[in-house]
Design brief:
By secondary structure, this protein is of the alpha/beta class. It has two domains: about 300 residues, TIM Barrel; about 120 residues, Jelly Rolls. Strands 5-4-3-2-1-8-7-6 form an eight-stranded parallel beta sheet. Strands 9, 11, 12, 13, 14 and 16 form a six-stranded antiparallel beta sheet that branches. It has a two-stranded antiparallel ribbon with strand order 10-15. The longest helix is centred in the N-terminal third of the chain and has 17 residues. The termini are far apart. About 0% of the residues have low confidence.
C-alpha cells in the first residue's frame, strides 16, 4: 500500500472520530442541537477569514471559464499556518475556505474527479493541511462550495450541467473526511448542479446535523442568510445584500446572517476575490474600514467573513496581514478607533456625475465606504468635488482615496473665501491613497479640484481632518 494511501486512510479515520465528538466535548455520536442554541454558537464566531485560492489566482481574472487541467494550479507553496496565525491575531473565530470554484478544481483529495489539487504540481491535500492548522490554532472551519461546475456534462456558457450524484458525493466527502464544518457557503452562480437547495440542505445535515447551510442566491433555503458583498444588519433588513435582493425577507428559516466582501477595494483589471495582479499589491481596505463592519456584525448578531486571496506561493499578502493584525488590536481593545473625517456624511456637490446615476453622486465620496465612489460626468477629464461642513471649521489634513483608478494627474485643494476659491495645497498623481498635511485652514466649504485626469475622475473617498 502506498504511503499516500495510508496517510489518507489515517486522516479519514481521525476526522471520522472528530465527527463523533459532540459540540460540548461529550463522548458518543454528534447530537443534533436545538436550533436556537446552535445559532448562538454560530453568531459567537463573529468574524472570519474567507480564503479564495484556485485557478483564478493564476489566470488573473475572477472566473476562469476556459478549460484547464490540474497542472494549471501552479502554486509553489501552501502556508496554512500563516493563514490561521493571522486569523488568530485578527481576533477571528473561523476560516471560510474555498473547496471548489466554478471551474471544478477541487482543493481536497476527492475521489470524484481527477481535477484536484493532489494532481497539481503542489501535490498535497490543501483542505487536510488547513484542518490541521485550524485545530492547532483554535480556529473553526467553514467551507465555500460552488454548487455546479463547468466540467459537468451539459454546460451552456457560464451555466453548469447537472450532476446531482457528483455534487452529493463531493459534499459527502467534505462532510465525513475533514471534521466538523461550521457552515457551507453555497455559490449558486452556475446553477444548483441538479440538486435543489432543500435537497442540498437535507443531504448535508444527515452527515453534520449542526452544520448551517446558506445560498448566495437562487431559491432561499437553510438557516444561514448570505450577503455577498453585503453589510451588517438585522435579518430581513433592507438593502443589506448586493445580490439576490428580496430573498432574505421572504424566507422564514434564517437564524443567522453572514456578510462578506474582498479586502481588495474596487479596482480596474485582475481578480477581486482571488489574488489579483501584482500591480494591485498596494491596494487594501484599511483596518478601520474592516473593524467598523466587525462592530456592525457584533451589534446585529451577524458573522463577517473578510475575503483574502493567497498569492502564487500560498501566502497572504504582507499588506493584508498588516491590516488584519491591526484589526485585531481594535478587537482586543488595544487601540481605539480614530474619529471619522469631519467631512463624513456632510452635504456634497460636484461639477458633474457619471451618467447622472445617483449611485455615483458626490455624496459617495463622503460616506466612509471605500467600496462606493463618486464618478465625474461621462467624457470629462477634469472636475471638482466639494463639501459643506455646515460651519467654519479648521482642518490640517486630508486623505484622498483613488484606489487603482489612477487617473488624476494634477489636482489642488481649495477653500472658499467669499465668492472665490483659494488653493492651499496641490499635487500631481494621487495613487491608491494620498495623505496631505498643511498649515491649519479655516473655512466652511472645501473642494478637491481635479485639473487634469487621464480618464473620467473617480474618487471613492475624500476625507478632511482637524489634525
Amino acid at each position: 500500500m502506498k504511503l499516500s494511501t495510508i496517510r489518507t486512510l489515517v486522516r479519514m479515520a481521525r476526522n471520522a472520530l472528530l465527527l463523533f465528538a459532540s459540540a460540548a466535548g461529550l463522548a458518543g455520536p454528534v447530537q443534533k442541537l436545538d436550533d436556537a442554541m446552535r445559532a448562538e454558537q454560530v453568531k459567537d464566531m463573529k468574524f472570519g477569514m474567507f480564503i479564495c485560492w484556485s485557478f483564478s489566482t493564476f489566470s488573473g481574472k475572477e472566473w476562469t471559464t476556459e478549460p484547464h487541467g490540474p497542472e494549471f494550479f501552479k502554486a509553489t507553496g501552501c502556508d496554512t499556518d500563516q493563514w490561521c496565525r493571522t486569523a488568530k491575531e485578527a481576533g477571528m473565530g473561523y476560516i471560510l475556505f474555498l473547496a471548489k470554484h466554478h471551474d471544478g478544481f477541487c482543493l481536497w483529495d476527492t475521489r470524484t474527479t481527477e481535477m484536484k489539487v493532489t494532481n497539481s504540481p503542489l501535490g498535497i491535500d490543501v483542505l487536510a493541511k488547513l484542518r490541521t492548522s485550524c485545530d492547532a490554532h483554535g480556529i473553526k472551519l467553514a467551507l465555500y462550495f460552488s454548487e455546479g461546475d463547468w466540467t459537468w456534462p451539459g454546460r451552456q456558457g457560464t451555466k453548469s450541467g447537472a450532476n446531482p450524484e457528483a455534487k452529493k458525493a463531493q459534499l459527502r466527502e467534505l462532510c465525513t473526511q475533514y471534521g466538523p464544518i461550521e457552515f457551507f457557503w453555497m455559490d449558486h452562480a452556475t446553477n444548483d448542479g441538479g440538486l435543489d437547495h432543500e435537497e442540498t440542505v437535507n443531504w448535508v445535515r444527515q452527515f453534520q446535523p449542526n452544520c448551517f447551510v446558506g445560498f448566495n442566491h437562487g431559491k432561499p433555503a437553510g438557516r444561514l442568510a448570505l450577503r455577498e458583498r453585503g453589510r451588517p444588519g438585522p435579518i430581513g433588513g433592507k438593502n443589506l445584500r448586493r445580490h439576490g435582493k428580496g430573498m432574505e425577507g421572504g424566507h422564514k428559516g434564517y437564524l443567522v446572517a453572514e456578510f462578506t466582501y474582498p479586502i481588495l477595494p474596487p479596482h480596474v483589471g485582475g481578480a477581486h476575490w482571488f489574488y489579483s495582479l501584482p500591480k494591485h499589491d498596494s491596494l487594501c481596505f484599511p483596518a478601520e474600514h474592516v473593524y467598523r463592519d466587525y462592530v456592525g456584525a457584533v451589534k446585529h448578531g451577524n458573522i463577517f467573513s473578510i475575503d483574502v486571496g493567497p498569492d502564487y506561493a500560498g501566502r497572504l499578502r504582507d499588506i493584508d496581514v498588516a491590516a488584519l493584525r491591526k484589526v485585531g488590536t481594535y478587537v482586543r481593545g488595544e487601540l481605539k478607533l480614530p474619529p471619522p473625517p469631519i467631512s463624513q456624511g456632510k452635504a456634497a456637490t460636484a461639477s458633474g456625475t457619471w451618467q447622472g446615476i445617483p449611485g455615483h453622486g458626490p455624496e459617495m465620496a463622503f460616506d466612509g465606504d471605500e467600496g462606493t465612489r463618486w464618478g465625474c460626468a461621462e467624457g470629462s477629464r477634469s472636475g471638482w468635488l466639494a463639501v459643506d461642513l455646515g460651519k467654519p471649521t479648521t482642518i490640517a489634513r486630508a486623505v484622498i482615496v483613488e484606489g487603482s483608478w489612477n487617473r488624476v494627474r494634477h489636482f489642488e485643494l481649495q477653500c472658499q473665501e467669499g465668492e472665490t476659491w483659494r488653493t492651499f495645497a496641490k499635487g500631481t498623481s494621487l495613487g491608491a491613497r494620498k495623505e496631505l498635511t498643511f498649515p491649519p485652514v479655516e473655512a466652511r466649504h472645501f473642494r478637491l479640484n481635479i485639473l487634469d485626469a487621464s480618464e473620467v475622475p473617480t474618487i471613492p473617498e475624500f476625507g478632511l481632518h482637524e489634525r
